[in-house]
Amino acid sequence: MQIEGKRALITGAAGGIGRAIAALYLRSGARLFLVDRDAARLDDVIGALAAEAPGRVDGCALDVTEEDAVHRMVSAAQESLGGIDVLVTSSGAISETEIEDMPLSEWRTILGANLDAVFLACRAVLPIMKRQGAGRIITISSQIGQRGAPRFTHYAAAKAGVIGFSKALAREAAPFGVLVNSIAPGPVLTSFNKNLRSETLDGTAAALPLGRAAEPEEIAGAALLLAASPHGDVFLGQTLGPNSGDVMP
Ligand SMILES: NC(=O)c1ccc[n+]([C@@H]2O[C@H](COP(=O)([O-])OP(=O)(O)OC[C@H]3O[C@@H](n4cnc5c(N)ncnc54)[C@H](O)[C@@H]3O)[C@@H](O)[C@H]2O)c1
Question: For residue 8, which of 69, 65, 66, 53 has the smallest C-alpha distance?
Answer without folding.
Answer: 53
